[in-house]
Each structure stands twice: as C-alpha cells, then as structure tokens.
Design a protein that fits this description.
The chain contains four helices and nine strands, in the order αβαβαβββαββββ. The protein has 185 residues and is of the alpha/beta class. α2 packs across α3.
C-alpha cells in the first residue's frame, strides 16, 4: 500500500499542470451561463456520468440558475486502466427520459465512444433532445466519429494522459486541483 502511495505522489509531483483551478472555475462559469441560456425553459434531465463527472457536475450544478432534475449513470471503458476497453454499464439511468431534453455531463471527451453510447441509449429511450457537456475535450484525430464534439465544452487540451477534476490515473488523483498530464504519457 505504501508503494502505491509513493508511486501516486511521484506521478503528481512530476505531472504537468495544463489547466489550473482558476482556469477551470472560469470555464465552468462560462459553460453554466451557456447551458442556462439554452435550457432554462426546457425542464431538462441532467445525467452525471460517474465517476469522472462527479466533481465537474457538482460544481456546474450550483451555477445553473433554473430548475433541473439531476440523476446519475455509470458506464465505463477504463476500469482503472490507462487504455479503454469495451463499454460496461454499471448503472443505466432509470429516470423517465421519454420526451425530455437530456444533458449528459462528463469529465472528458477523449475518443468519445462512451459518451456516444450513452447519448444513443438516451435517444433509444425516447429523449426529445440529447446534449452533452464535458469539462475537457482532448485534441486528437481518434474520435469515435470525425465530427464528434460536445455541445458544451470547458477547455481543450493536448493529447496526453490526463488526471484531476474527476479524471483518474489508475483510480487515483480524481481529486487533483487542476487538469494534469502524466509525465511521459
């Protein structure tokens, strides 16, 4: 156990901070304004994608100035690994989606396979409209679809292995106070 703690502390100490707390706070504030402007009269259903979306969603929710129903779901491709595998549903949404505007909130748009699958599921359940909000959009050409973009994006970052603000490195550092890139990855 102490080897793990030492390894994780070393990862943090050597990491590059790509986006600091103040920049994240400003990005979330800007996103909240855009989301409020678009959804304030729509009675949206917001889904936090666990676990990564937890921190971002918590901070975003307090800045949405309209009534919103907030729920969560859990789908993952990583399971504490550094590369994605097959999509695994740990908890599908059980709220009534039919005819609703759905906002899916997640930490990152990397390849987008997970986010795309969640959006497709919501559409298949009769959502009138499905929108996505991500804190981070990782810039590369490996997206699930060439035109894949979130409807609301906080920051865009380079193509590196990231952690912090909900994103983890081997299950750790979701709590890091910024967006960090692992040295060498």
């Amino acid at each position: 156990m102490t080897d793990t703690v030492a390894e994780m502390n070393q990862v943090f100490q050597e990491a590059d901070c790509l986006v600091n707390e103040q920049q994240i706070a400003a990005a979330i504030q800007n996103m909240a304004k855009a989301i409020t402007d678009r959804l304030k009269d729509r009675n949206p259903l917001l889904f936090c994608v666990m676990n990564g979306g937890l921190i971002f969603t918590g901070q975003l929710l307090t800045q949405l100035h309209f009534p919103v129903q907030a729920e969560y779901l859990h789908a993952s491709r990583y399971r504490q690994e550094t590369t994605g595998g097959l999509l695994e549903w740990k908890l599908k949404p059980d709220a009534d989606i039919k005819g609703r505007t759905v906002l899916i909130v997640d930490d990152i748009l990397d390849e987008g396979t997970t986010l795309d699958a969640i959006a497709d599921f919501c559409r298949s359940q009769g959502a009138a409209e499905v929108l996505t909000a991500v804190l981070v959009d990782k810039q590369h050409d490996r997206k699930a679809r060439p035109d894949l973009k979130a409807d609301f994006t906080g920051v865009e970052v380079e193509d590196r292995f990231l952690f912090g603000y909900g994103m983890d490195y081997k299950g750790y550092w979701r709590n890091a106070p910024g967006i960090y890139a692992v040295k060498g990855l």
